[in-house]
C-alpha cells in the first residue's frame, strides 16, 4: 500500500467539544431512557427511574417487640415487689413471641424475664406495664406512602430489604444498555490460536467487556473481523441493529487498513475523527441508524483511556446514572513532565506517601504499555494549554486505587532487579495491607530520589572506581547531611548476557569492540553502566568503538530481551535474568545489591516488615530458585 | 408455650473474643483455601492465589510503532532538505502499518508524514533515521518472566488485558465460597403470598443473597423452613453438605420457637450464643460437619450488622481477600448518645457537612427499623466500656456512602412533611450530585439545630400564641444574634385525622375529651403540638382529660398510622397525610410551612438549587396531586 491510499490527517478537536457534539447528537435521537419493571429481589445494583414509596406500613400490624406475655395495661396497675399482680392465662394475658400480632383487648407486652410463673395458668408480675410498652406500632419502620428511595438511585442490598418490608415487590429501573463490541484487524487472533510474528492476541475487547460490566451495561462481543471494508461494514450494520451502543476496535487511525471512519461516513453520520488527547487521538465518534458508534484506537492504553472517556458516560446516560465525581488526590510531582500544546495528555502515575507527602511519578507514557495501567495509582490530566509541569509542583491526580492502599505502600525507587517482583509478591501474600511499589531509574536515580525525600527505599549497587567498594562513598557524596542506613546481605552475579550457545564467541570486554557485534547498553546512572564503564576504563577501551553503546535500556529484562530477539548480541546484566530468559551468561563479578533507607524510617512498621521478609525462608528459597545470588546475614549498616 | 420451655439467658461474649473463638476453630478444619484455574478472559473480580508472570514478552516481536516505511538506518544517513535520499521499494524500504513486524535487514521506521512519494517504486526522505527509531522492541511493554500482578490481588479489567498481552491464558484464583441461606420462621411468607397480621414477607435472606454477591461469594438460598425442630435440623444438615458456609435466619434468640442453638449443640459444636453487641446480640456461631454455621438474628438491622460482622470476613477468608480498611470520617456528634456497658453498640448515623464541619446525628436505634439502614451515611461503633458519648464530641464514623455525596447534601433538620420526600426526589432527579437529607425533630428542634450550626435548613411552622402569626417571633427569641432568612410561600392544611367515615363523630376540640376516645399526640416542640395546645388553651380545655395525650409520635405519618391501625381514634396532622392514607380529615386551619436558612447560605449553589425546585412546575404539580397545600409566590424574607 502507498501513501496516497491513506487518510493521514486526522482532525484535532478538543475533548470537551467532541463530547458536546457527540452527546448533543445522541440527545436528538435518544431522548428517553428505557425502563423496565423487575422483581425487587432481582434489583441489586440497578438504578431506579422513579421514587419508590412504601405500599404498606412496616410493621403492617401492631407487633410484639419482645418474647413475653401481652396484657391489658390497666390490669397491671399497682403491681410492685410487695404487691405482685396475679394474671390468668387467656383471660388477663397470653404468651407471645417477638413479631406476634397484638390484638385488642391487649395493649402492652411484658418481657418474659419480668414474668414469674405460678402454675400452668397463672403468672405474677412485680411492676405495672404502661400502654403500648414493648409493642412495635404499625409503621414504626415505615408508613404506607413514605418514600423508601428516590429516583436515580443505585439499589443496595439494604434497599431491597426495606422495599420488601414496605411490600414493594416490583421496582421500575433503567434498562441496561447492550454494548456491541467488534474487534477488527487481520493481525489479531483469539487466545488459543497460534501466534506468529505480526500476530497478537486480541485483548482490548476483553478489557472492554469487563469495563462495560463495571459501568452497569451488558456487553456483547462479536467474533473478530479481518481488515476488509465490506466485512467491517456488514458487522457494524448488524451490530447497530442488535445493540444500543456499538464499539469498533481498532482501525480508527489513518493507516492503510483503517476503514472505520470511511465506513461510518458512508452508512451514517461521522461526527468526529481525531481528538486532541494523548493517548487516544484517533478516536472516531459517529451515529449509524440512530445508534451511537465509537471507533476506539488499537493501542491498549489509548483504547482504555478513550473507552473510559466516551463509553462510560454513554452507558451511564442510558442508565440514568449520575457520573460520580472523580476521586482526586493532591500530590507533589517528582519530576518534570513535558507535554505538547497539541493535546490534553493523560499520564499514568505511580503515587507513594513518604512521610506526610504524596509523591506522584509518571509511569511509561507509551500508548502500548499496558503495564503502565496495571501499575498506575492514578491518572494526571495535563491540560492542552500547558507545555508541561515542573517537578516539585503540586498536581491533582485522579485516583484509580484506594488512598489507603497508597498510604500503605513502600515506595522503592532505584536499581532494577527481579527480586523486587518477588519481594512485592511475598509482601502481598504475607502482610495485610502492606504493598511494595518499585520504580526503576537506576542506582544513582534512586539516591537522587532519596535526596528529594520521594522514596522510603532505594535499591542500589554503585561501584566506587577508586576503592572497588560498593555504595557507601556515593551516599557520603550525595546525601551528606542525611542519616542513612544500608540494608546489606544480598550479592548478585553480573556479567555478559549472550545469545544461546554464544554464537559470537564473546568472552572478555575486548570482544565488545568487534565490528560484527551489536551491543545494548543500560542508561547513565545505573549501577550496571557504572560497572561497565569502570571495566572499560580500567582496560583502556574506547567506548565509542562499541556499536550500540548509545542504545540505552532501563532494565536488565529489556537488555536481555534485545539479545533474545536478535536486535543485539550482548549486553551487561544479572545472571538471574539470563537464567529466566534462557540465555547464556559469562560472569564479570559479584556485587552488593543494598537497600538504602533513611534512618528515620528503619523502625517503621513498613520497613520492619520488609526486613523480616528479607530474612524469611520463603525469600531465600525464591533466590535459590532464580540463581545468580548469594545471600549473607541481613545487616543494617549506618552510613 | 410457657416460660420454662425457653432458654432465656444468652451469653454476652465480647465481640473480639467471639470472633477469635470462631475463626480459630475454622482454621483448624479449613486450613487451605481452595483454588481453581480459570480462563483469563473470565477472571474479572476474582482473587489471584499466586503471582502471575508473563509467559511471553509483549510485543513478542519487534513491531512498527507507526504507519510508514521501514528502512535500514544506515541507508538514510546524510539525508537533509537539500540532499534528500531516494529509496527503492522492496530494496531500501517496504511500507508498514503500526504493529507490523520489523525483520532484518530493516532496523528503523520512518513515519508516513515524513515520506515523499516519487512514483510507485520510489520515495525520498529529508532526514536520516536512527537505528531502532519508531520500533517497539520485544518486551517494551513486558518481558517474559516479569510479574504482571502479585498474589491475592483482585483482577481488574486492565489486568486481564495485560495478562493476555503476556500470553497468560489461564489464571489461578481462589474458589468462590458457596453460602447456604436458610430462612426459618412460621411467620414468614414469600413475596407474592398472602399477608395477614402476624405474617411478614421474608426479606433478610434477600439482603443476604446480595451481600454475599458483594463480598464475592455465591449465595444459595433455600426455601423457608417453618419453626419445627426436626425440619430445621434436616435443613441445616443438608445445607452443611452442599455449602462452604451456612446461615440460619432467624430463630437465634431465646423465644419459644428459637431452636437453632439447641440443634447446633446436638448435631455439631456450638461455640457462641449471645454476643455483647447491639443490635445483633442473639448471634450464634458454631460448626456442623466441618462447616461454619452462623445463626443470624431476625430483626433486619440486627441481621444486617451481624452478617457484616461475621459472614463478610468469613467469605473474604475463603477468597484469600484482604479485608479493606474501613473508610472513617471524623465528625461532630450533634447530640448525646447514651449506651450501655453491657454491649458494643452500632449506631446508624446521618452525616452532613455544614460549612467546614461534618455533623453526625444518630438515626432511629430500633433493631427493626430498616429505614435507618437505608438512610444511614455511616455507622458509629460505641465501645462497650463507654456509657455514651456527649454531644459536641468528635467521633469516627465508618462510612457507608461516598464522602462526596455527603458533602453535597443539603441537611434539613426540623418539622416533618410529605413534601420533604417529594423535594428530595426532585433534587435527586434534576440536579447532578445534590441531595437532600431530612431529619424530623419538630420545628423547635430545627431551630435548635440551626442555633448549633448543624443544618443548612430547618422547615418550621410555629404559631405565636400571642400574635397568631408564624415563625418570626420564635426566630427572634432563639436565634437573636444570627442573620436568618425564611423561604416562604407554602401553606398547609392542619386538622383532625380521623378513621374512615368518622365513626366516633368527632368535630371540634371539645370532642377530644370524650372518654370513649383514644387520642394520639405529637412530641413537644413540634409545631403541630404547639397548634394543638394553643387551641386547647384558647378553649380552656384540660389536656390531662384527653386519653392518649401522653402518647407522642414524631411524624404526621405515624399519627395517621395509629389511627389507621386502630390504636387511636384521632390525632392532629396535615391533610396530605390523611389523603395519602385514605383517612378522614376535618380542617383546623391553614399554617405557614417555611424553610429557615442562615443568610450566609442563601446564595450557595445548594440552596439556590433548592429554591429553583420550590419554584418549579414539577413541584407545584406534585403539591396539587397530594392535596392540602396552598402555594403562593416563593419569597425570601429576612428575619
UniProtKB/TrEMBL annotation, chains A, B:
CDD domains under this entry? MoeA
The broad enzyme category this protein falls into is: transferase
Q: Which UniProt keywords apply?
A: Magnesium, Metal-binding, Molybdenum, Molybdenum cofactor biosynthesis, Transferase
In the UniProt record, does the keyword Translocase occur? no
Cofactor(s) listed in the protein's UniProt record:
Mg(2+)
Annotated InterPro entries:
MoaB/Mog-like_dom_sf, MoaB/Mog_dom, MoCF_biosynth_CS, MoeA-like, MoeA_C_domain_IV, MoeA_C_domain_IV_sf, MoeA_linker/N, MoeA_linker/N_sf
Instruction: Show the GO cellular component annotation of the record.
Output: cytosol
Output the Gene Ontology terms for molecular function.
metal ion binding; molybdopterin molybdotransferase activity
Pfam families, per database record? MoCF_biosynth (PF00994), MoeA_C (PF03454), MoeA_N (PF03453), PBP_like (PF12727)
Q: Which reaction does it catalyse?
A: adenylyl-molybdopterin + molybdate = Mo-molybdopterin + AMP + H(+)
Q: Which BP terms in the Gene Ontology apply to this protein?
A: Mo-molybdopterin cofactor biosynthetic process
Q: Which pathway does it take part in?
A: Cofactor biosynthesis; molybdopterin biosynthesis
SUPFAM superfamilies documented for this protein: MoeA C-terminal domain-like, MoeA N-terminal region -like, Molybdenum cofactor biosynthesis proteins, Periplasmic binding protein-like II
Instruction: Identify the residues that the record assigns to the MoaB/Mog domain, covering every copy.
Output: 180-317
- EC annotation from Swiss-Prot or TrEMBL: 2.10.1.1
Function recorded in the entry: Catalyzes the insertion of molybdate into adenylated molybdopterin with the concomitant release of AMP.
UniProt cross-references to PANTHER family, sorted A to Z: MOLYBDOPTERIN BIOSYNTHESIS PROTEIN (PTHR10192), MOLYBDOPTERIN MOLYBDENUMTRANSFERASE (PTHR10192:SF16)
Belongs to which family?
A: Belongs to the MoeA family.
Name of the protein this chain belongs to: Molybdopterin molybdenumtransferase
Q: Which species does this protein come from?
A: Anaeromicrobium sediminis
